[in-house]
Structures are given as C-alpha cells and as structure tokens.
Amino acid sequence: MGKKKLGNSKSKNSIKKSKTSFTTNYKNSGPKNSSKSKQPKNPNKISGKDIFEIDQEETKQERRRRNIDEIESYEYAGAEKIEKKDDEEIDSDEAFNDSDEERFEHFIFRGSNQKDIKKQLDKEIDLDETEEDDDDNEESELDEDDEEDQEDEREVARKSIARFVWLDESDNDESEMDEEFKALMDNDVQEIDDETKADKLASFIGSLDKKRKRTIDDEISSLEKPKKQLKERTEAYEESEYNLATRESSNIRKKIDLHDLIGSIQEETGFSGLKQKLASLESGGNKGTYKEPLSAPLPPRIQDRLNRQAAYEKVNKDITKWEPIVKQNREAEHLKFPMNAPLPHKQTNNVLASMFQPVTELEKEIDSMLVESGVKEKNLQQYEELQMSKLSVEEVEKRVKELRKMRELAFREEIKGRRIAKIKSKTYRKIRKKEKNKLDLKQLAELDPKLAREEQLRLERARAQERMTLKHKNTSKWAKQALKHGRHDLEGRQAIAEQLQRHEELKRKIHDLGSDEELDDFSSENSDEKDDDIDAIKEKAFDELAQLERKETENEEMEGLFGMKFMRIAMDKEKYRTRGMIDDFIEDLENEENSTKDEKTKKEVKKSTITHVGNNPGRMIFGGFEKSTSEHKFDIKKLSKSIFDLKSSSAEEPKDDDNKLTEPINNYSSEINFEEENPWLQTDSTKIVSSSKKNNKGIIKENNKSDKIVSKLKKQKQGDQSQNGIEIDVDKILTIGSVQNKSMNENDQRGKEIKEINSPTSRSDKASKFKSMEDYDTFDVETNFVHVKNPTAFSQRELVARAFANDNVIKEFEAEKQAIIEDDEPKEQDLTLPGWGSWSGKGVKKPKKKKLVLAKPLPGGIEASKRKDAKLQYVIINEKRIKKAKKYLSTNIPHPFETREQYERSLRTPLGTEWNTQEVFQKIVTPRIITKMGTVIDPLNVPFHTNDLDE
Amino acid sequence: MTEEEVNIIDKDTAKKIPKYVRPAEGKLGSKQLKKIKNKKLRGTLERVEKISKEAAIKAARSEILLTEDPGYLETEGIEKTFNITQKQLKENVDEDSTKKIFDLKLPTFGPYSLDYTRNGRHMVIGGRKGHVASFDWMENKLISEIHLKETVRDVKWLHNELFFAVAQKKYVFIYDHNGLEVHRLKKHIEVNKLDFLPYHFLLVSVGNAGWLKYQDTSTGQLVAELRTKLGSCDAMAQNPWNAIMHLGHYNGTVTLWSPNMSTPLVKMLTHKGPVKAVAVDHTGKYMATSGLDGQLKLWDIRTYKLLQQYYTRSPASSLSISQLGLLGVGWGPHVTIWKDAFLTKQQSPYMNHIQSGTQIQDIHFCPFDDVLGLGHSNGISSIIIPGSGEPNLDSLEANPYQSRKQRQEAEVHSLLDKIQPEMILLDSTFLGKVDRASKDLLFMERKEEEETQRDNEGKREPKNKARGKNSSWKRYLRKKQKNVIDERKLKIQQRIEQEREARRKRIIGNEEDKDRPKALERFSNKKRKL
Questions:
Q1: Where in the sequence does UniProt note compositional bias of the Low complexity kind (chain A) (predicted)?
Q2: How many CB pairs under 8 A join A and B?
C-alpha cells in the first residue's frame, strides 16, 4: 500500500516538470529504438514481456489521467509544447483498450532483478484483495503525502530498482490507482551504479516495443490467465426510458471519451495517420512521462486562507525589519521632518583661520604687523619644525615615547580615579578619609612638628569630647535598632534605659566638673588666701546641700504613691526637719566665714543660697532659705492663675485650669523664659523708653478707653506693690542670664537697679506707663543674673487680660466648633415609619426598645476624628465641598495613568514661561511632530542594520 | 543640552535645586517605575519626571542671572542695627537713595492710609478727612490730587497706576489717574478696608456691616457678597499665593475667605481681644496678627499653628510683610522691623523708627525697593529699610521702569491671563487634579444635576409679550420727566386717551345700539325701563 501511494499523481507531475531534460532524453531515445531498429540496445536482457508490460502501463496511465481530469491536463499543455513534437512517435501505441487491460492486469514485468519481482508479486496479490477498499482513501491521501512522497521516491530510486508494477482492476475499471514509476522520473537515477543503470535503461527501452508486445501479450494471456467473463454490454448504461442520461452505477466515474469513440479504429491498420493525430490531440503534449491529473482545487475559502497565511508570513517577515525604526520613532519625544536632514556644514575654527583673508583696513594692518613681527601661524610652525629638525632621530623618538608614556600614565590615573569616585560604600569613604587625614598629619609632622603636635592634641581632644558626649547616647546602630524594634522586649528596653541612665550620670558628672572648674577659677582669683583646701571642702558641702535641695524639689513633683496625701504630709514633715538642719548648718558655716573674711562672705552667701529649680539643672534659685520653696510655688501659682486667661489664648494651651494646675506652672516658667527673651522689652530699655517719655502725653491722649482703664488699674496696683517692694526684691527669682545681655554695661545697670530697689516709686508719673517694663528690663541685666520675673512686670498684662475677661471668646469659639462638627457629621437616615410593624389598640404595651431602621448615612458628612482640624483646638476648617470649583477637577483618573499620584505628578510641572526658563519652556511646548515648510517628506527609510532580516 | 550635561551639577546649583522641585504626593523613583507594567505609561511617566527634574535644574542654574543680592544692615562690635536711625542712614547711603527718605507733612487731613502699585512706582494716599493724592514717588511727581470732603477710610490701586479705588464715607469710588471719578460702587457700603487681587481683577472690600464683597473690575460684575456675621471688620489682608482673603474680627478670630464659599474656609482664634491688623507673607506661608490684647502672633497658615508670640507695649495698629520677609509693625508712633521673625524667636528687632508726635495708621513696604511707607496722623513718610524689597525684578511680572507701551501691553496680557474667581481655593494647585470626594457623593451630585436639568427642560418661562406697552408714544412718555408738561406730551396723552376710548367702545359695542330694544327684552323686568 505504501509503495502504491508513493506514486501519486501530483508528485509525479511536479517531478516531471522539474526534470524535463531527463524525460525528454528518454523520450527521444525510446521511440527511436522502437520505431526504427525495433531492437533494444541490450537485447539479451530485455524480454518481450518487459516491453509489453511497460507499454501497457504507459497507456494505462495516459488513459487514467484522461479519465480523471481532462481539463487539468490541458492546462499544462501550453507549458509543454516543446515536448509534444518529441512525443509524436510514442503515440502510436494507443491501440490498447480496456479489454486488453482487463486481460493483462495481473502481469508484472520487471527488469533483471528477480528477487525483487517476487516480493513485489506477493505484495500485489495482497493488494488485489484490498484494492477496492483502499481506493477511496487514496484520493483523499493524495494531497497530504505530496512532499513525503517526493523524498521517498528518490530513496527508492537510489536503491536502483526499476520496477514497473502495474495493477489494475478489471471489474469496475477503476483507474484511480497509483502507480510506481519512480525510477524513471527520478533525477537520482544517474547516481545509480552504472551496470544496473544500463540494464534498466535497456530493459525499459525494450519495453517500449509495441508490436512485439502485443503478440507476446496474447500468448501470455492465453497461457497464464484464465479468461474472464466480461459483462455483456449493450449500452453505456442500462436501458430504461427513465434512465437515459445516467450510467451504470459501477461506471459512474467513467465518461465517454475519445477512446470509447475511436477504440475500434485501433485494431484496424489503415488509420495510422489518424491515430497519430488523435493521440497527439489526446495526450495534450508530453508523451512518455506519466502525467498525474491535477488534484481538484481546494475550496476557495480554504485556498484563500492558505494564501493569506503564506502572505502573512511573508509580509510579517517584511514588516519586522521596520520594527526598530518604528519603535524608535514612536518613542521619540519629537519628530522632525524631513528626517535625517543633513546638518548645515559647520566650518571649524582652523578651517576658518586658514581661509582667512584680511579684507578691511584694520585687518590688513594687523596682518602686516603680524607678518613683520614674525608671529604668524605659518612662521611659528616653520620655526617648530626647524627646531625639531635639529634633533637627531633618536632624540625625537625618545621624546615621542616619553610623551606617549606620560599620556598613558595620565589616562590610567584618570581611570583609576573614576573607579574610586564611583565607590559608594560609606565605610570605604570613612576609611579613606581617615587614611587621608593620617597622611596629612604625617606630612605636616615632617614639615612642621610643632603644628602637627597641636593638631594631634586637638584631634585627641575632639575625640575625647565625642566620646564623652555621644557614646552613651542612643545614637549607635545597636541603640537605634533596639529603639526601633525592641520596644516590646523587656531586655532591650532595660538595656536602653540603663544606657540612658548612664548617659545622664555622665552628663551630670560633666556639669559638676564644670562647676568645679568655675569654683576653681574663683578660688584661683583669691589665690593669696591660704585656706584653699578648707574652702574647697566648704564648697563641696554647699554643693551637697544644693543637691539635697534639688532632690527635694524633685520629690515634690512625684506622682503615684509619693503623690498621695499622707505620703506628702510625711515628706513635708521630713523636709521641714531637714531644712532646719540645713539652715543651722549654713548658719554655722557662715558664722565661721564671717569671722575670717567679710568681703568674701557676701559672694559665698550668694553661692550658698543657690538652689536648683525643678528638674532643670540650669535654673537655680538664689537667696535665703528663710522662705520655703513651696511658698515660692504658691506665689507663682497665684500669679499664674491671675494671668491664666491671657495665656490660654495661645493655641496650644489647655483651657481647664482646675484640673491642670501643674501645667500652667510649667507654662508659666517657660513663658518666663520667653518673657526674658522678649525683645520688645529689651530694646525699650535704652532708647525707646526715653523717647516714649517725651511723647507720653500725646500717646495717652490717643489711647483707647481700654488703655486708660489699664493705666488706672496699674497705678493702683503699683501703689500696692510699692509697699511690699522691698520684700519682693528679697525674694527675687533669678536665673543665669543669656549671653546677649552681657553686652550691656553692667555697672550702669547695677546702679539703676540699686536705685530701683531703693525707690521704686521715685520715677515720674509720666513714665508710669512703662514703669513696670523698665523695672523688668533694668533687672534683666544684672551682671550674670537676670530676673526671671518681677511680679510687677505682670501687672500690665494681667490688667489687659482682665480688660478682656468678660469676652468669653474661647468658650464661644469652642461651642461654635462643636456645633459645626456635629453639623458636618454624617447623618444617619432613620427610615422607621411611625406605627409600622407595631400593634395598636387597647392594652397594647409599647415595646421598650424602639426598633430603628437605619439606612446608610448620606455621603458628604465627615466624622469628627477625621476632620482636618481635629487636632487643632482653636481652628475650624471648613469641610464643605466647594461646588464651584468642581468643574476644574477631574472626576476620574485620565486614561494612561493608573493611580492618582501618577496623574497628579504629571501635572505638577507648570508649562508656562512664568515658571520655567525659556529653554525648558520651549522644550516642553515643542510639538511632537515638526514639519519643515516647503520640503518634501520622504517615506521612511529602512536603516542598514535591518538588512540581514531581508533574507 | 544633553543628558550628561544635565547630570553634571555643581554644588551650588545642587543646593538650590530643592527650592525649585515642585512638591508631589508619593514617590516615583526607578523602583516604582519598574513596577509599572504598562510600557507606554512608564514611558510617559519617565518623560514627565525627566522634564520636571530638568526644569528644576535649569531654574536653579538660571539663578546666575539674578545679579543683585539683597543687602542688610550689618553692624560691627557693640553696635546694634536697631540703633541706626534714618538720619544716620541718610548720611551714609548714596544720593539717589537719600531721596527715598522723605516726609510729607499733611497734618490737616488726618491720619493717612496709603498704597503702592504692584511695581512700586506709584503711591496713592488718602487722608481721613478727604484728601486723596496719587504720585510717582520716585520722581516726586504729583499725578492727581483731589479733596473729596468726606471721610476716606482706605485707598487702593487697581491693576495699574491708571485707576485707584477709594473707600469713602458711604460708597467705594474708582478714580482714574487724573482724579476723575469713574465709578461709584453702590454695593460697597461703609467700607473700612479695600484690597485688590491683581490676577483675578477683583476688588475686595469689607466694612462696618461685615460684608465681604468681591467686584470684578474688568467686567464690573459683583462676583460675591459674603456675610461674615462677625460684625464690623477693620483688618484685612490677602494671601498673594492663593488669593484668599484674611479678615480679622472683633472676637479675636481670623477668618479665611474665598468668593466661592458662603462660610469661611478657615476660622482661627488668634487673640483674646479684637484683631487689629493682619498681614500675610509674600510666599503665602506665614501670617502675622496683632490684637488689642497687646500680642503679636505669627502663624504658619499651612498648618494653622502658632509659631511665635510677642507682647507689644501697645497694640500694633498696622502690619506689613515685605517681599523678602521682613515684618513691619506699627504701634503708636513706632515702627519696628523684624528680620527672620517667622523662622526663629527674635531677640531684638532689625530696625526701629519713631515718628514722633503721631499715631501710625498704615504701613506698607514698597515692592522692589528697600522702602517702607508710613501713613500717620501727620501725613506720610517714607523710610529706608535695607533688604526689604526684592532686588531682582521680573519685568514681565512687575516692572517699575515700564514705558507707556509696556504698560498697555501688560494690561492686555494680564486681562488675557485673568483667572476666574472660581479658582480661588486654599490649595491653588488644585487645578486639574482628581476630585477626591467619595464615589457616593459624586454619584449623588451627578444625579442631582441630572434631575435639575430634567426639571429645567420642561419649564420654559413664558415670554413677556405685552404688545403695545412699548409703543413709541408710551416710551416717550415714560422717558420724559413726569412733572414737565409740554405740548407734545399733551397731544400724545390725548391721543392715547382717544384710542383707549375707541378700544373700549369696540369691546362693549356702541352705546346707541344698546338703547335699541332686543328680542327678549319684553320678558325682563319692566323696572329697568323707568
């Protein structure tokens, strides 16, 4: 079966076409032999059977082709005109009709190879049985196996088997059979070894002899094959009046063709001319080659599809080479047409210089001068050349080498530098920096050892300082990590706490050290005194006392267990006792000192009375301990209460004064600092005050009513204060002044201060308005210490606060804010219908819980916690939607963007000239496509690098 | 410039770049870009980023063109800048600058308010008792002077030196450079403070009634009338960055207004007492307020938080912030200037000035010049404050040296570039951004809009087609004064009367016909005949 398939029509056609030269040769030679000499070239090997067989086969093929598709064979006629002439002689063997075919259908003729024939025979017998079934399949398989078959054929040919097997079925005349006719068609025949080839060729040619064939045929047929009973045929189809046009079912495919008409002529002898003509007419050209009928054309739809696919592949290939350039153009920011326009030729400076011809008079003059002085470019060049010429060849070479080497070195250095500059590692940088510093230091040591030592010392000091200040802070990597992550594990927290504590301790030590130093300095001033040691001890004692005091004050602010009432009372008692002891001790000490030195004591007393305030190591209280610190506190509290209203106007301060009594104190103290810094008051002290005095009358006139009230009240207040003025002065709370104040003339200020203390009311009434301020200011600049607060300084502000005390501004504001917050909150929709779902009538109990049907709150509201002003106490930010601005907003994110951020980022750079430099502006607004007017825009060129895709 | 060149940035420009990088939400580095799958989008975003980066770099580089540096007073040793008087300054500055220190003694027409044009070239002054004058103060050239003989509360230049608005006793008037009254704005009643938004062409006024009114001076429309509900207002300032108006009220609050919202955008409690003066920084970041409670407070209006607070010895009556951020405070006869006041707590003022024997009414820094103008009870005076004005001017924005032609051009351009009042919002960069309202809300709004549209479609107001009412006679009669009676008028009246009679008769029918008995008359009551 497989072999049968090999010889299908299409493949043979195609082969035939491609190998016309071979076939024609064969045709030419074949008929010659048969017609003229009628003797094969190698008669020994060619049997009569052979000749006949081949001929028969030929004719059969011819016929079959005709049967299947006449039209197709004619289609090829044009292409094979040349062959026609040659084929004429072969056409004489057309006298072989159906009956003959039937008779000899099972005869197989072969060349010399007997074994093969045997095999073939076996196969054929098998095939005979299955033939009918397979017929239909064959047709369908024709197309599919085209290409395979070609290859197979060649293989077979290479095996040098020239077999011509002819099979037929006589019964139904089905000529749709595939023949094997490979060796003939194959171009590879030439490759077959010469002997066999020659044999085969001879046998083949021999087989073409017709006359012999016929006689032998008859004999054989009579001998070997029992006669077959043919069906009696009266008509081409069954006779019936209804069945005129149709044929016998078995003959459905059979058309009436030329053979049917002229078959009878074949037997006759006198019509050779006619026969020949008919044959030529019928064969349509190429005689001698097997011409398979062309397969039926595919349905146009499928054919089109195949065409399209093929075309698509081709076009696809074509188009891919455009891809890169199209991509490039698509991604380009701007496209300028015509593309790749040649740039206007730019002449280099050298060219211009060489082309230069002096034209104007000035140029000429300069030129002539240059020529005269001999500094023209040409001359210089000549001079250089001359110089070079003096040198020997070796020297020049050496020079060039040297130059090259230098250049090379420089280049390497550059590359190295670039590589190093690229390194991003911080540690590397650090190490490098250190190395560099070291190197510098070394170099410095070589140059100037003294300076180097100083530098070294400075570095050491810096390092020590660093260690002191930073080591125990939480700045190390570990500490940071621990702070970040170790919030939850106990050990980490403890470690950090420990570290902090350590840091605190160290810091304290540093401070103490500092104070010691100060004291040392102090003592060194008085170095003529002998009892340095005693002094130091005393100093220490005072320090300790101060520390005790500090601890006490710290304790006072304790909370929790120590904050409880009974604990406090107990502590107070304790404190009272200790304080008594301290006082005694101090007195003792003082007495001792008084007995020795008078002048010094004053200072010492001052020092001794230092107490630290609160937690702040920088703040100290000076003055006697006659009055307890708690009393101070009370004073402060009172004051703070009175000025509270004023303070609370600042945005961040709390409003509730009862609950947070401690906070105002803190605020107060902070405010004290801020007051101290208040520059309004500082500047007044010198100039403005004096000027204001002069203009005081005018100002008072201009003042508002409120101001008048203020001044009145103030006067009263001042009267009161003047009575206890001295007392207050004693209790002054002092702090170390800011550095700035040092610039003031200390002596003057001191003098003023004394005046102030002695006669606080001595100033003229005119200046009374600013009096309190002045008091404050003058006290400000007392040597190193400044008044934190003179209670009188409060008076004005206090009074101003009082003046506005009635305006319940804050409460009103808060109420308003609350109302707005409530108003803006999302409103729940109550969809409950009254009476719906409940019973009515007598004796019905009302359900205790009201069932509420709530719908989703209407959009547009905002919860209190989500408001922008949720954390701003004294600010109301409107959360309403501004509908008028809606038209300037985009409701959706525009197309290419995926997120709002992306889109808004693209908007943020403004396009106008107002916000951009000219260059950027022009770049931004350049259109994507620019065409030059009046130029031809050529179609796109494929760049050269895509040529390889062409093939 | 190639990309490589862009990438090579020297240290100086690198420092300046952040100033020009526009803030944006989120990050868009190479990491984020990689995540974006859409190639085209990534391409666009990359391009956008590149452009914005390049723009910033170029802008930083272009600073090289700003040749002038602002100079400040600097002292040596024990000397303090606040001790330097104008007299001392005058002795030491160049002759051209000495002309900037001057006093106009105008004691008769009461405390003066003043205003500079946007380019700082011209000045308009308004005396409380009705004296208004405009002049080119640099050349000491008077342009116009008028005596209005009624109270003048404030004066304000409009978009250029051709027009100025004056808040008078009852209305606001607009005068041209010749002092000719051009408009009377009847809707602005008893105005205390005037302001002008140059990019929107809006004249803003607020007065005793507490109504904030916006009038478009290019079209004449009254854009918005907003009721503050907080009583008389005497402190107003505009935020030049977003054109929001800041009003200071009697209850110590400062409110921020936009013409698009009937309620204040922000309301903040600043003082315990009435707010006396408000000033907003040139960059729109900071605000200074002074109250009758004797405090001066500095605010960050991006966060609405208090930055610093100072006590003033008497309540500051006027505040002004210069282009370079110097804060001027006028209190009593004094003016104190503070440098870097918004950044750190100041220990001492930058400069001091005292206008003895007067009460400061109004102070204004002159744009593009180191000059502070004071309006006080004795006239006006001008003092030098070194380092107050922007030294590098953008002549396309505001040009003190502009010619007439340039002014005309600028006027047309500014009109073409006029911004609509709807664009006044707290965030001036909102334009084109995505609406962040919830989807539900947007849906609801759209639905409402559609509904209203549908409702309006059906309704069509009937045209008032009263035929004959506008006949030429009637129009004539309507137009003429009613108390003047001339011959023609009588004639016309007569004819009209006649016509009316004829019409009546036509409707009722002829009287003679009426007398004729009708067919069914006989059945009617006989009494009628009588």
A1: 20-46
A2: 246
Query: A486 in a domain, yes or no?
Result: no
Q: Which residue range forms the structural domain that includes residue B493? A: 472-528
Phi and psi torsions of A328, nearest 5° = -60, -45
- What's the mean pLDDT when you consider all of chain A? 62
Of B45, B314, B430, the CB nearest to A885: B430
Same domain? For B316 and B213 the reply is yes
Note whether B312 and B290 are within 8 A (CB): yes
Task: Please report whether residue A461 resides in a domain.
Answer: yes
Residue A439 is part of which domain span? Answer: 426-470
Q: Which residue of B has its CA nearest to A897?
A: B41
Q: Are residues B61 and B154 in the same domain?
A: no
Q: Specify the higher pLDDT residue, A514 or A393.
A: A393
Residue B242 inside a domain? The answer is yes
Q: How confident is the model at residue A450 (pLDDT cuts 50, 70, 90)?
A: confident
- pLDDT of A564 reads 72
Contact B273 A890 (CB under 8 A): no
For residue A742, the chain B residue with the least C-alpha distance is B78
pLDDT at site A354: 80
The string of pLDDT tens digits covering residues B273-315 is 899 999 999 999 999 999 998 899 999 999 999 999 998 888 9
Are A144 and A12 part of one and the same domain? yes
CA distance A610 to chain B (A): 27
**B95-128, pLDDT tens digit by residue?**
999 999 999 999 999 899 999 999 999 999 999 9
CB contact under 8 A, A902 and B45: yes
pLDDT of residue B526: 64
Which residues in chain B touch residue A773, judged by CB atoms under 8 angstroms apart?
313
User: With an 8 Å Cβ cutoff, are A684 and B313 in contact?
Assistant: yes
Bridge partners, B236 (sequence order): B247
State the Cα torsion B377-B383-B388-B390 to the nearest 10°: 100
Contact A684, A774 (CB under 8 A): yes
Q: Is the CB of B306 less than 8 angstroms away from the CB of A652?
A: yes
Q: How far is A368 from chain B (nearest CA, A)?
A: 41
Task: Choose between B470 and A789: higher pLDDT.
Answer: B470
d(CA B382, CA B374): 6
The four Cα atoms B29, B32, B35, B37 give a dihedral, to 10 degrees, of -70
| pLDDT in the model for residue A499 | 75
Give every strand in the sheet of B181-185, ordered side by side.
Answer: B152-157, B163-168, B172-176, B181-185
Q: What is the DSSP letter of A37?
A: I
Contacts of A897 in chain B (CB under 8 A): 41
How far does the CA of residue A834 sit from the closest CA of chain B (Å)?
27
Verify that B56 and B193 share a domain, yes or no.
Answer: no
| CA–CA gap between residue A534 and residue A524 (Å, rounded) | 14
Query: Of A626, A646, A663, which residue constitutes the final position of a domain?
Result: A626
Q: How many domains does chain B have?
A: 3
